[in-house]
């Protein structure tokens, strides 16, 4: 049990080695190996959930691993899990497992695809499990390499541009984070705990100042902004969002799912784990600004989504909008707001994954994604009568994404609104408009694609096959069950979120 | 006044240089005595033997006490020894490359070996220089032989142009440097580095007025050797025109030697706080930022991979200058660390680029199209080297940048660290360009490139392995680099 986190983290990498040993002609064997590896990994995350103790705040000592890595710099290989990272770890396990199923139809360089895919899973787990800032940074960056190739090789027409843009943006953000990390190492005394994320937390650096070009800045505020930019690019927070539509649209289905479902959450996770607790004073100082940026995300993302004629791009922008809710919820720094934000991270992971998977299913039949083609004709029409099974799953996904009561998105959005109303009344009112636009663009898209006259090209589409239904079922169950009964997830995070919020409250 | 060891006693500390010199003379004899294939194998084995012997004696020196030798003309300290080890490795690596390169005329191979060992000796003198005269001798030995190396491909227009350009710029900068040195001598009335700290005390303001411009002139010579902006104009043309093994050699040995000299000079003349230190740090700061930025930005638009690597090596020199301007041991150690990783990354990338360029006759980006399909291993290794050069973890290049930035941040140069960081983002763009050609593009044909033989790939793999190993486990290398202390009297 003590080594469970090690197993979760390294199991995908063992899978990579296994795949590299299989000759590339044996495609089926490669697919089944990846499925097995991701299934085992997901099983391990469920085991982690079962062994998890809800009552503990902070890291669960039963699972913590800490081994010296680079002794001169006091860098440790140190892993741990708490109520904030566990939902993310489980989401990662689940989505990678389902995405292997959805990637069954990939035919181009299967071996390389699954090897990179599992490498990506390893690095994502690394980000969510690391308790050492240096280790966190390494995983954060390593993630870019498989991602670059997955978009660049298996993506759509403009894949190279999208891949390099994604790589450069994130790299730029993380370089700023790197400087912040090194600065923290020195101001915290270069001791045993100087890269220890937990020991850095608690606002030890509130009174420090630093000198840049003869001007004195508050150390905490200066480096909070550095970390903020690093994480904000990943979320993405307006105005750092411009890489996202390209990356999403060009990426192959499974990679879009992972990108929207898991990778965007790494940004908000970074706020929760690093930026906020390490610089609580600065975060409180900037919280209004963060909330306004989040609001821009909500409204602007929703309006952009409404204007799209490419359905995948529409969903991509809807992610921008939904991540705005997470940002606003985090900025409120109240119990309900933060709980809602973490829950929204999990729920949005499920619902947006469903949307992207459904669009992938559709794309395999239509080979285009136009709601309205550039020449003004309809891209789809009357899907509802042609593909009944597909339409039902799509409706569930769409309503979950919209936040319809009874589905999971509603709970988290309601919690976020409860949390932010206490802090920012204006923003709450304006954010509700975002919700409204959200309903509008989704329903409008649905109307244009599923209702109306059945256009010719749609007539020979086949409905979802059993493999496709199989990988949609777990997500459907998740959005419905957590919509009615969210306690399993909420209970996990309660204690950890509580301790974070009480830390922030000291700096109000 | 401690004069250091006398001539006879000094010799035992100077074994690596002497071994290298003997190797060089031996190569001349072998060249003259034997003919044909026999000559080549004999000569190469002898050169490797000599250089490895020199390497062995250097590693013995690494742990010995720092000593000033030849009446203070040179100093043997762990830092200079470390830099010399890197230079010897770089020379061995380039000689291996020259063995089969089509860029070097078959009957000029021994000349390449001869000249490169000569430049190496110049670099060793420079790294150990402990007075202005030996510094100048080092620079000149290094330069004059380099001019010949640049034009080694003498029937090629570009190569001849490279040699001429190099010598014109080099001659001018050496002259300016000597001019600066003579003024410094005029003010301080000593050429010995060991006496500088005493001589610097109690100068009048008019003497400072002469010193500051003299140091500027002095820097021209050294800045030219490492191709720092604005003395970098020669470098892309020379790098492009020279045969590939020469380019490889140039981007390692003279650069490392120049950086070592700049670090020593900074410690000797500017170790004490004051107006001199302040202006020197400001000068290096501006030059370092300019060097890395101009190098990176210019690299983006290049059509030739060799030229791109030339500009990228300019920007790496800018990075290493950051370590020099700190004027402390951390800075020197992190530069040593950086140079170790830089050595491997540069060798690997030039090896792979060299085999491709040799086969196709040019090194445009298009030649790398779809390399992954025909030569997966070579493409993966070159991609690793590129990612490492850009500083992506978990590779050696990241760790070396981390070390350097740590030293910079420790001194409170936050802005410099951020600029350097953003520069590596720019560099990522052009390093990924070649990765994109290799991996994302379709191959033009199914031709196998003849250079990627099993033996060559093993060598490339062995040189590439440290990039990954250092990236993951850098305890030992960091330990070695931090023990590379400077000895300043």
Written account of the structure:
The complex is a heterodimer of chains A (508) and B (489). Chain A is mostly helical. Chain A has a domain of 219 residues. Chain A contains 20 helices and 4 strands. In chain A, a hairpin with a 2-residue loop joins strand 3 and strand 4. The longest helix of chain A has 32 residues. Chain A starts with a helix and ends with a helix. The mean pLDDT of chain A is 89. Chain B is mainly alpha-helical. Chain B has a domain of 191 residues. Chain B contains 20 helices and 2 strands. A two-stranded antiparallel sheet of chain B has the order 1-2. In chain B, helix 7 runs antiparallel to helix 9, helix 14 packs antiparallel against helix 16 and helix 17 runs parallel beside helix 19. The model of chain B has no long low-confidence stretch (mean pLDDT 89). Chains A and B meet through helix 5, helix 6, helix 7 and strand 3 of A and helix 17, helix 18 and helix 20 of B.
């Amino acid at each position: 049990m003590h080594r469970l986190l090690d197993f979760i983290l390294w199991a995908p990498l063992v899978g990579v080695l296994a795949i590299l040993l299989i000759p590339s002609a044996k495609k089926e064997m490669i697919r089944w190996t990846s499925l097995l590896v991701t299934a085992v990994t997901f099983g391990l995350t469920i085991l982690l959930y079962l062994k998890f103790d809800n009552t503990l705040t902070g890291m669960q000592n039963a699972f913590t691993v800490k081994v010296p890595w680079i002794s001169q710099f006091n860098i440790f290989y140190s892993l741990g899990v708490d109520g904030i990272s566990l939902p993310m770890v489980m989401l990662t396990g689940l989505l990678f497992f389902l995405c292997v199923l959805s990637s069954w139809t990939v035919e181009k360089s299967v071996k390389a695809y699954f090897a990179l895919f599992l490498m990506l899973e390893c690095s994502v787990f690394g980000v969510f499990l690391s308790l050492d800032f240096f280790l966190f940074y390494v995983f954060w960056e390593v993630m870019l390499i498989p991602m670059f190739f997955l978009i660049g090789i298996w993506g759509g027409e403009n894949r190279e541009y999208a891949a390099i843009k994604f790589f450069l943006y994130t790299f730029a953000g993380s370089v700023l984070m790197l400087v912040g990390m090194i600065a923290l190492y020195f101001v915290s005394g270069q001791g045993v705990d100087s890269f220890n994320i937990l020991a850095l937390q608690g606002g030890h650096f509130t009174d420090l100042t630093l000198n840049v070009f003869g001007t004195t800045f508050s150390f905490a505020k200066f480096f909070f902004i550095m970390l903020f930019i690093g994480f904000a690019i990943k979320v993405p927070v307006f105005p750092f969002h411009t890489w996202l539509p390209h990356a999403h649209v060009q990426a192959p289905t499974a990679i879009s799912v992972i990108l929207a479902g898991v990778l965007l959450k790494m940004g908000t996770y970074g706020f929760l784990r690093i930026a906020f607790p390490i610089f609580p004073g600065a975060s409180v100082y900037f919280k209004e600004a963060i909330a306004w940026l989040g609001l821009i995300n909500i409204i602007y993302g929703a309006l952009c989504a409404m204007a799209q004629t490419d359905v995948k791009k529409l969903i991509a922008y809807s992610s921008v909008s939904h991540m705005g809710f997470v940002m606003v919820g985090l900025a409120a720094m109240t119990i309900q707001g933060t709980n809602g934000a973490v829950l929204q991270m999990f729920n949005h992971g499920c619902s947006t994954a469903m949307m992207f998977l459904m669009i992938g299913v559709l794309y395999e039949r239509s080979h285009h994604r136009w709601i309205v083609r550039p020449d003004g004709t309809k891209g789809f029409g009357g899907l509802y009568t042609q593909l009944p099974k597909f339409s039902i799953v799509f409706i569930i996904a769409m309503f979950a994404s919209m936040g319809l009561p009874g589905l999971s998105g509603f709970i988290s959005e309601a919690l976020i609104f409860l949390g932010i109303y206490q802090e920012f009344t204006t923003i709450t009112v304006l954010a509700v408009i975002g919700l409204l636009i959200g309903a509008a663009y989704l329903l409008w898209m649905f109307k244009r694609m599923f209702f109306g006259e059945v256009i010719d090209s749609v007539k020979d589409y086949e409905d979802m096959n059993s493999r496709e239904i199989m990988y949609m079922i777990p997500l459907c169950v998740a959005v419905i069950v957590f919509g009615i009964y969210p306690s399993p997830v909420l209970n996990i995070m309660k204690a950890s979120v509580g301790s974070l919020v009480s830390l922030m409250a000291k700096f109000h | 006044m401690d004069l250091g060891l006398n001539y006879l006693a000094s010799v035992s500390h100077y074994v690596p240089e002497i071994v290298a010199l003997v190797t060089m003379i031996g190569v001349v004899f072998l060249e003259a005595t034997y003919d044909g294939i026999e000559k080549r194998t004999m000569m190469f084995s002898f050169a490797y033997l000599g250089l490895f012997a020199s390497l062995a004696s250097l590693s013995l020196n690494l742990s010995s006490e720092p000593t000033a030798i030849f009446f203070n003309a040179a100093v043997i300290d762990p830092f200079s020894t470390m830099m010399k080890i890197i230079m010897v490795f770089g020379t061995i690596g380039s000689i291996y490359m020259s063995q089969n390169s089509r860029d070097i005329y078959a009957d000029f191979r021994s000349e390449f070996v001869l000249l490169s060992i000569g430049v190496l000796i110049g670099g060793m003198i420079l790294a150990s220089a402990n007075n202005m005269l030996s510094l100048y001798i080092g620079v000149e030995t290094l330069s004059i032989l380099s001019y010949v190396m640049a034009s080694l491909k003498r029937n090629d227009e570009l190569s001849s142009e490279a040699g001429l350009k190099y010598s014109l710029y080099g001659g001018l900068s050496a002259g300016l440097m000597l001019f600066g040195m003579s003024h410094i001598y005029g003010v301080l009335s000593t050429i010995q580095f060991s006496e500088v700290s005493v001589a610097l005390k109690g100068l009048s303001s008019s003497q400072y007025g002469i010193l500051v411009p003299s140091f500027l002139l002095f820097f021209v010579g050294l800045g030219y050797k490492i191709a720092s902006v604005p003395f970098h104009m020669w470098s892309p043309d020379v790098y492009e025109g020279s045969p590939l093994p020469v380019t490889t050699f140039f981007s390692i040995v003279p650069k490392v030697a120049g950086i070592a000299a700049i670090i020593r000079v900074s410690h000797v003349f500017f170790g004490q706080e004051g107006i001199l230190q302040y202006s020197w740090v400001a000068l290096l700061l501006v030059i370092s930022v300019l060097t890395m930025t101009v190098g990176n930005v210019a690299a983006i638009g290049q059509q030739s991979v060799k030229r791109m690597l030339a500009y990228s090596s300019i920007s790496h020199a800018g990075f290493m200058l950051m370590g020099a301007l700190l004027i402390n041991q951390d800075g020197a150690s992190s530069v040593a660390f950086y140079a170790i990783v830089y050595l491997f990354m540069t060798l690997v990338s030039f090896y792979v680029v060299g085999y491709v360029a040799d086969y196709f006759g040019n090194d445009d980006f298009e030649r790398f199209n779809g390399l992954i399909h025909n030569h997966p291993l070579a493409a993966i290794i070159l991609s690793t080297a590129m990612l490492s050069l850009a500083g992506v973890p978990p590779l050696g290049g990241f760790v070396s940048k981390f070390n350097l930035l740590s030293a910079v941040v420790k001194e409170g140069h936050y802005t410099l660290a951020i600029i350097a960081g953003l520069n590596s983002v720019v560099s990522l763009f052009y390093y990924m360009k070649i990765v994109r050609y290799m991996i994302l593009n379709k191959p033009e044909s199914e031709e196998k490139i003849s250079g990627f033989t099993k033996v060559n790939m093993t060598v490339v793999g062995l040189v590439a392995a440290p990039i990954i190993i250092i990236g993951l486990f850098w305890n030992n290398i960091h330990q070695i680099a931090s023990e590379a202390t400077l000895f300043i009297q």
